[in-house]
Design brief:
Strands 3, 4, 5, 6, 7, 8, 9, 10 and 11 form a nine-stranded antiparallel sheet that branches. Helix content is 20%, strand content 18%. By secondary structure, the protein is an alpha+beta fold. The protein is globular. Bound molecules: protoporphyrin IX containing FE. The site of protoporphyrin IX containing FE has 28 residues, from strand 7, helix 8, strand 10 and helix 10.
């Protein structure tokens, strides 16, 4: 059933799972102990306690897609998730999704794999799966009528998988929001990421259809201390204070769902034990009015963020990794890190210590017909509970953050990302089948 295999799970032995083979040189010749192979030939194990693609050092490219399930047949949904599991186990190891053609399959039928990644290495591909609230309880009607629980899953809905509130300034496009299922594909080669999602979408024919998708580039977060901090389209370092893979205690506190969450849900009559060890993925497509930003002074830009543009140091002083001193004041008694700056309003001390693992990407989707780029930050964050770790932060930012003058949230999604699968069934040759 859905819960037993954490929905993307399937039973059996897995011959391809690669245990960490000790430190290997990553693309920047920095150790990446989670990877097998080097550079473009890097692969990450699909199986494990947690899904890959969360603490995995952020790859350069993203293709994220959400799907609407188009059947009411629970067995077909389960079958799709099982097939996706096997395909993902193959694709992430650099194997085709299935047979590529005449030598291994029939000539009078389409090949199982579409072929455009046939000669490409895995490029660090990870595939991360999650479920939207609508999968469990349907979508409420515009008139307030309740949604339909098509698959008998309402009793499995974790309390944390809420409907996100409307935040001030939201301009959400329903065609860029929500979805029953989500697939986050990350790789250093966009062709590899798109190929993976395309083949998963193809396998879903008749069961689920693509709802929306987002291509991203130039990761805007570092999720490991082995990575240099990248920059977002405002030109600022992004990810300095991020939760990093090496901070195992912080991951347990702020990213992974603890067993106690299921205990609380059980007391309310809901079985969410399937989410223990998982995480919640918040996705926000945030358009940035970069033309306006580019006309503002450096002083204004730094005051808005609360950090220097070059070094990324807090305006209270120090270097990039110096903690901001929110109490420090200047000559005029004004705080050095301004009261309405992004870094102050997002800071954990303002939100009961809550942190998040940000894993966003830049996007540029053409222009808007008024000579402005449709560009911005596709914000992705993994949190232990969006009610404590995202909603309060975004509420503060949406009402007081100086950055909000330059931002427009145009898409949104919240997804329950179950823990990893321990194993995937394999065929005689040891590959997942
Ligand atoms: C920090 C940019 C949206 C939460 C930062 C930093 C920058 C930045 C430059 C400082 C460096 C760092 O620690 O990473 C942006 C831009 C955004 C955006 C350009 C939109 C286009 C958001 C949103 C949230 C958020 C929507 C959450 C609701 C945070 C947090 C920090 C941070 C938690 C770390 C604060 C700390 O611990 O010091 N952001 N951000 N950001 N941002 Fe954002």
């Amino acid at each position: 059933g859905l819960a037993a295999g954490a929905a993307v799970g399937a039973a059996g032995g897995f011959g391809v799972a690669r245990a960490s083979a000790g430190p290997t040189a990553g693309p920047a010749a920095t150790p990446d102990p989670g990877a097998t192979g080097v550079g473009a030939h890097r692969t990450y194990a699909f199986t494990g306690a947690h899904q890959a693609g969360i603490v995995t050092p952020a790859q350069d490219r993203l293709y994220l897609a959400t799907f609407d399930v188009t059947t009411d047949d629970r067995d077909r949904l389960v079958d799709l998730l099982r097939r996706w599991t096997v395909m993902a186990a193959r694709l992430t190891q650099g194997l085709p999704a299935g047979s590529l053609g005449p030598s291994s399959g029939p000539y009078d039928a389409p090949p199982d794999d579409t072929g455009e990644a046939a000669d490409l290495p895995a490029a660090g591909l990870t595939l991360t799966f999650g479920f939207g609230r609508s999968l469990f309880v349907g979508t409420p009607g515009a008139d307030g009528s309740p949604g339909v629980d098509r698959f008998g899953l309402a009793a499995r809905l974790p309390a944390a998988l809420v409907e996100l509130p409307h935040f001030p300034g939201d301009d959400l496009d329903p065609a860029r929001s929500d979805g029953d299922l989500v697939v986050q594909a990350c790789a250093d080669d966009p062709q590899v990421a798109v190929h993976a999602v395309r083949n998963l979408a193809r396998a879903a024919f008749g069961t689920a259809t693509l709802r929306w998708a987002q291509l991203g580039y130039g990761r805007t977060s570092s999720t490991s201390t082995s990575q240099r901090t990248p920059r977002n389209l405002f030109g600022f370092k992004d990810g300095t204070s991020n939760v990093k893979a090496e901070e195992t205690e912080a991951l347990d506190e702020h990213v992974w769902v603890p067993a106690s969450a299921a205990d609380e849900d059980a007391a309310a009559g809901t079985d969410s034990a399937w989410m223990t060890g998982g995480s919640y993925l918040v996705a926000r497509r945030i358009r940035m009015t970069i033309e306006t930003w580019d006309r503002s002074s450096l002083r204004e830009q730094e005051a808005v963020v609360g950090r220097t543009k070059g070094e990324g140091a807090p305006l209270s002083g120090g270097t990039e990794f110096t903690e901001p001193d929110l109490a420090a004041t200047g000559a005029d008694d004004a705080p050095l890190v301004p009261a309405d700056s992004h870094v102050r309003l997002a800071h954990p001390t303002m939100h009961g210590g809550a942190r998040m693992l940000r894993r966003g990407y830049n996007f540029t989707d053409g222009n808007d017909g008024l000579g402005r780029l449709d560009a911005g930050l596709f914000f992705l964050a993994f949190v232990t509970d969006p009610r404590t770790h995202f909603i309060p932060v975004q509420s503060a930012l949406a009402t007081r953050d100086a950055l909000r003058e330059y931002l427009l949230h145009t898409g949104s999604g919240l997804f329950a990302v179950p823990p990893g699968v321990p194993s995937v069934p394999t065929g005689a040759d040891g590959t997942p089948t």
